Structures are given as structure tokens and as C-alpha cells.
Amino acid sequence: MNTVTRPTGRLVLVPNTLDLGAQPQPLDELLPSAALRRAAGLRHWVVESAKVARGFLKRVDGVTPLVKPLQQMTLQELPRARKGSGEQVGAAVWESLLAPALAGQDVGLLSDAGLPAVADPGAGLVAAAHRLGVAVEVLCGGSSLTLALAASGLNGQRFAFEGYLPQATAERDARVRELEQRSRREHQTQLVIETPYRNEALLQALARQLHPETRLAVAWGLTSPGGGCRSQPVAAWRRELSAPGRAPMTDTLPAVFLWLAD
Amino acid sequence: MNTVTRPTGRLVLVPNTLDLGAQPQPLDELLPSAALRRAAGLRHWVVESAKVARGFLKRVDGVTPLVKPLQQMTLQELPRARKGSGEQVGAAVWESLLAPALAGQDVGLLSDAGLPAVADPGAGLVAAAHRLGVAVEVLCGGSSLTLALAASGLNGQRFAFEGYLPQATAERDARVRELEQRSRREHQTQLVIETPYRNEALLQALARQLHPETRLAVAWGLTSPGGGCRSQPVAAWRRELSAPGRAPMTDTLPAVFLWLAD
Lengths: 262, 262
Known about the structure:
Radius of gyration of chain A: 20 Å
Distance between the termini of chain A: 49 Å
CATH class of the largest domain in chain A: Alpha Beta
Mean pLDDT of chain A: 93
Helix content of chain A: 25-40%
Order of helices and strands of chain A: EHHEHEHHEHEHEHEHEEHE
Largest sheet of chain A: 5 strands, parallel
Number of strands of chain A: 10
Largest interface: A-B, 66 and 64 residues
Oligomer: homodimer
């Protein structure tokens, strides 16, 4: 780096709510007021999707007036690397998204739900900020992963988030068994997510593949009406799921699946 | 289970702030108002430590009046199992702590910072609630682990939290190298925590043990004044830490250490 002085603009990681797909609750009930005030003061945004971000900013405006009208803000979407394509986003792209921060103005980073860059895009931009000497500020907000972990009653002193499991059945089942072995060896809770419409299929597959005594939990729509968490041994899940349509979660709310082999 | 009807009392997981050891900020700026209101209405508590819990409830009372005076609440501490002792807390202990919920009244669970049962005690109580059919409700709040992960710019699509590393040097260094290999193989960010007064010693050890190109981050006191996050390759850390006293974090604020081998 050749910059002599550190840029004075910051990259501000703004938490979104967790009510994606659920009935929206008043925003000031869901996020700390310090985070809302800080978000309302930002003029430059990099976001997962512009549509969701505009909806979020309108909700913020209803609670704490935005520093300028939405139309006058800069709002840019994160580049999408195709999944598994191995494509790298070039340094110039990140630098251009961070241009306001390099010029001294704060930039907000927002994803469609929860924390940016956690089970969501944004890490590339945060990494670029660190490389360019842009200070990274994080506002307090919830992540569905740690909330699900707390609600599951499984081991919160050691856990791993795997993202999505492979889609092909044989590959998926092999990975589930591998992660169950690791869970038993290291007493490590395993967490995965799935696209909501496949929630029930995944729960069925986990109940089939895991050992009857392994504890398996699903947490869905946490912090929203209609959300919940069920946690019980696999043997109990098998009895419960023996008829179709018995899964406790819906196919529209995002869910987190967790297991621990003792 | 022989219960025919499900208990109507719930176990409510209440997030604490992340300002343990930092200058306290106004509570209503740090936690969502829905969580504060729900917490203010609870009469029965199970907590990590009574002293911290009383301080928290006094702060809540300053924002949203408590449903009854603190002295008239029941406030019980979680049982402490000695570390590594293998002791199990008996089912009767959990059942007694959950007695109000079994009798139809909500019970709050609170730890000294952040989310209960995530890098903090409480999972045993939550597991017992699931076994006894007590519904578990989680209020939206931040965890220092996912906030640190977001702030680090490291991979947030796949990560593992290891808790504390072993204290003996040789054992610790071996575990660090093992977790670095896993990080490289699975593109999995590794997270650990340490007792604050050992923060600098751990950062020095990680900078010595990890590969020069591995990215290493430390996030300390997030969401508090004086908090921050630094993330850079190990080679850069080695240069920075070549003189003592150069570590960016303090020895009083809780810190999270993260690394990713690409």
C-alpha cells in the first residue's frame, strides 16, 4: 500500500432484520436504536440486493428520518460470483465500491437478512476494506446461526457452520455422516442451512442418515411470529416424521439445522 | 415423558450487551426495544452470575420499568460444572430451575454478555427445556462471534468456533496447526477466544505458528467505544508485533481471534 494517511471514511456493517419471508414487525422493535440512527445517517450503500435494501431503508426512515432522500443515495449491489465458478472479483471492483470511504465518507454494507458477510455475501468487500486501510465498524445485530444455536440447547462452546450441503443425494448423505463423526469426536455442533422449499426434504434426510441417539434440532423464522425451534434425538424425529407433512417448520421461512453426536 | 399437556411457561433466551469490561452505553441503544420489553416482564430468572444479572436488570428498569421490584424476583445461578471434570448436572437440578415454566410462568435465561448458551453457559438448561416440552423463545441480540466474523472479512459461509485453545504451549501450537490445515482443506474460518489478559500472548503465538500467507484477524470490544477489528496476513502481523506492546487490542476487552488459510 502506498497510502500515507489512512482513509477517514469507514465501512459500516449494518444488521438487517431476520424477518425475511415472515410478517414484518416494527423495525425499532427488532434492531437497537443506536444501529438504526447510525444507518439513517449513511449516504452510500453497498448491498446484497437493491430491492430489499430500499425496503429496509424505507422502514428505517419510518423510525429515524434518513439523512437524505433514498433517491439521492448511492446504492450499489455486490458483484455476484457464480457459485462454484471459482471466479474472483477483481481488486478494482472492490476499490470502486469503497470509493466514498477512500474519499472520506462512510459506506454502509447491508445484506438481505441478518449480518452481512455471515452466511451471506459481503466478505470480499470487508476484506478489501482491511487491505485498503478503511476502518470496519460493526453495528450490533443478530445472526440466525447463533440464535439457532442458543435455542437448540446443543453445544455452544464448539460448533461449525457448513453452509449448504451438496445437492446430490449420495454426496449429501456422505457429508452428513462425515460431519456426524466429527461432531462425536470433537463434541462439535454442526450447523447447515437450506433453501426454504427444501426444508422438509433436508429434515427427512438428516433423520434417516444420523444415528438414532444424535440430537437434531431445527430452528425456523426465529424472532418472527410463527418461528420456533424443536430439538430432540433422531429416534424421536423418525417417529414424528413417519407421516408426510409432519415437519414443524414451514417451507417459506428460512431454517437452520443443527446436530450433535454425543 | 408422561406429561399429557405441554407446559405453558416458556424459557426466554435474553441477550445481554457486549460491553462487559467496556464503558457501558445506554441499554436502549444496544438492544432492540422488543427484547427489553419482554425482559422487563419476566419474574423468574436463571443466570450465569447473579451480580451481573442484577446490574443488567437495573439497566433494563431505567428504560422499561420492571414488572416487579428486583428483590421480589427469583434469580437463580446456573450450576457450575468444573471444567474438564466430566461432571454431569442431574436432571432434577434442571427441572427445579425450570419449575416456574412447568407451572406456567416464563423464565428468562441470561448470561454475562451476548447470547446465553453461545460461548457461554446455559445449553444444559435449554436442552432440559426441550426434553420437558417447555417452549424455547429467543430474543434478537448479537453474539461477539458472528459480529467478529462479519468484521474480519474472512469466510462467513463456512466457519468453526473452537472455544479456548489448550493452555500448554506445545498442545496449543499443535492444535493451531491442525486447525490451520483444516481451514486450508475446507476453506473454513477458525475462531477462538481467550481470557482478555492473555490476548496479546495468544496473538503472538498465532502469528508465530500460522503460515505467513494465512489471514489472521482479531476483533475486540465490538460495538463498544475503543473496540475494533484488524485483519491482515500473518506476515504483516509478524512485522507489526516485532516489538512488544504493539498489539492493537487491550488486555481488558474480550477478543475473538480468527484465521483463514487460503
